[in-house]
């Protein structure tokens, strides 16, 4: 059985070739850049006012108002000492402006401007190029396009951007005991929920599941189901049937479909019987059927691969250290991910940690990771993954 670190090395060590595509700025959120963005001009590209008020020339307590400049106006003024123009936030300031005085600090009588405070040279002027200079590198390839990144690219005048294509993903859930939510269940049956959770977590991270299906514990049907989906997917996610039971057919069905095993079983809890394989440029994760195992494996192992395939410069969820709100006795023999809640700058490990239970994950917002068993004192800073 391999360690979590070895699993991550295998996943992130896969040679993959993200495919660049061009998208409009409206569609670009959540993609990773496939190009370097450099600034096509100084930003801002002209000195402009940070306030509604008056652009004044020279240091004085009174000025003669000689005009008005609105935001967007190209009007030129050649201000002389003792002169002022009415100006608005974002409007281009005349070249020899000493400072912009906010209107709350002024009084106007006809064409005369009285300034309350002393005029601080250069104040309230946003200088040309003080955010970005012409030719400066703004974003590198692999940069994640957050709303702020989209805004910045728009402010540079670009309406399309080259990004990496997202992988085509399909999901197969397996198990005779499973019926879809909404139907009446019989004795021994349970509702199929993993594919719903997986579909939702894909969307949370900007991916989508193109198709999903459920297949009974029937070797031939599982083998055919895998074959049908694998041809059309970059990543195939399976849930259940990957352990050692007599009806766990997924591993053999993958092998018979020519999927090469990259690893099977990771020394972790939950999610030990995780399978990762590859056929050409297509990847397969067979996730353990227990609901918490399946989602934990997604966060820790599947998501980094999806991000890598999408061209991310730094795949994987961020880990932070947060003080534990209470003492915790970790009795797990395997490195463990515990459902937890970060609140008020501390983290609480929740009750109901079994791999078969998803309630605690639903009430929490994070996973706390412990490598070793033992008592962890209150206040100790513990590795926490926000999900
Ligand atoms: N003899 C052993 N038995 C088990 C081992 C082992 O090492 N030796 N490992 C256990 C661990 S750990 C896990 S995790 C599970 C994983 O088993 P499978 O991946 O084969 O999953 P199933 O047996 O199909 O299901 C497990 C559990 O989860 C429920 N389930 C499955 N699919 C769904 C779904 N789509 N939605 C909701 N719930 C689902 C299923 O009914 C079972 O209760 O194996 C242990 N056994
Ligand atoms: O490793 Mo299994 O995922 O504990 O339940």
Automatic annotation (TrEMBL):
Q: Which residues form the MoaB/Mog domain?
A: 170-308
Which PROSITE patterns does this entry report, sorted A to Z? MOCF_BIOSYNTHESIS_2
Q: Which GO terms describe its cellular component?
A: cytosol
Pfam families associated with the record: MoCF_biosynth, MoeA_N
Q: Does the keyword Metal-binding apply?
A: yes
Q: Which cofactor is recorded for it?
A: Mg(2+)
Q: Name one GO molecular function term.
A: molybdopterin molybdotransferase activity
Q: Which reaction does it catalyse?
A: adenylyl-molybdopterin + molybdate = Mo-molybdopterin + AMP + H(+)
Its UniProt pathway annotation is: Cofactor biosynthesis; molybdopterin biosynthesis
Keywords attached to this Swiss-Prot or TrEMBL record, sorted alphabetically, are: Magnesium, Metal-binding, Molybdenum, Molybdenum cofactor biosynthesis, Transferase
Question: Quick check: keyword Isomerase in the entry?
Answer: no
Q: What is its EC number?
A: 2.10.1.1
Q: Which GO terms describe its biological process?
A: Mo-molybdopterin cofactor biosynthetic process
**Per the similarity annotation, which family is this?**
Belongs to the MoeA family.
Fetch the NCBIfam families from UniProt.
Glp_gephyrin, molyb_syn
Function, as annotated, reads: Catalyzes the insertion of molybdate into adenylated molybdopterin with the concomitant release of AMP.
Name of the protein this chain belongs to: Molybdopterin molybdenumtransferase
């Amino acid at each position: 059985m391999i360690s979590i670190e070895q699993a991550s090395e295998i996943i992130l060590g896969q040679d993959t070739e993200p495919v660049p595509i061009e998208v409009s700025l409206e569609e670009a959120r959540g993609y990773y850049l496939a190009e370097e963005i450099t600034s096509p001009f100084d930003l801002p590209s002209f000195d402009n006012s940070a306030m509604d008020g008056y652009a004044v020339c020279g240091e004085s307590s009174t000025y003669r108002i000689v005009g008005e400049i609105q935001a967007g106006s190209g009007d030129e003024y050649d201000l002389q000492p003792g002169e002022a123009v009415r100006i608005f936030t974002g409007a281009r300031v005349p070249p020899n402006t000493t400072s912009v005085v906010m209107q709350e600090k002024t009084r106007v009588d006809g064409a005369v401007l009285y300034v309350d405070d002393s005029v601080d040279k250069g104040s309230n002027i946003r200088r040309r190029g003080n955010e970005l200079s012409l030719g400066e590198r703004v974003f590198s390839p692999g940069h994640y396009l957050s709303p702020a990144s989209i805004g910045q690219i728009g402010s540079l005048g670009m309406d399309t951007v080259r990004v990496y294509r997202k992988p085509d993903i399909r999901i197969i859930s397996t198990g005779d005991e499973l019926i879809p939510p909404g139907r009446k269940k019989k004795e021994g049956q349970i509702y199929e929920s993993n594919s719903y959770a997986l579909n939702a977590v894909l969307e949370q991270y900007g991916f989508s599941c193109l198709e999903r299906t459920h297949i009974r514990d029937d070797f031939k049907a599982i083998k055919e189901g895998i074959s049908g989906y694998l041809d059309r997917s970059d990543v195939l996610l399976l849930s259940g049937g990957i352990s050692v039971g007599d009806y766990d057919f997924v591993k053999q069905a993958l092998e018979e479909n020519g999927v090469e095993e990259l690893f099977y079983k990771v020394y972790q809890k939950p999610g030990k019987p995780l399978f990762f394989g590859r056929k050409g440029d297509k990847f397969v994760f067979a996730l353990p059927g227990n609901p918490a195992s399946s989602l934990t494996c997604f966060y820790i192992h599947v998501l980094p691969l999806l991000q890598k395939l999408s061209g991310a410069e730094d795949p994987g969820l961020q880990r932070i250290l947060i003080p534990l709100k209470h003492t915790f006795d970790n009795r797990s023999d395997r490195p463990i991910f515990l459902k937890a809640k970060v609140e008020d700058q501390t983290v609480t490990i929740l009750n109901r940690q079994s791999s078969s239970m998803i309630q605690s994950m639903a009430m929490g917002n994070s996973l706390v990771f412990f490598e070793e068993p033992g008592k962890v004192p209150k206040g100790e800073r513990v590795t926490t993954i926000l999900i």
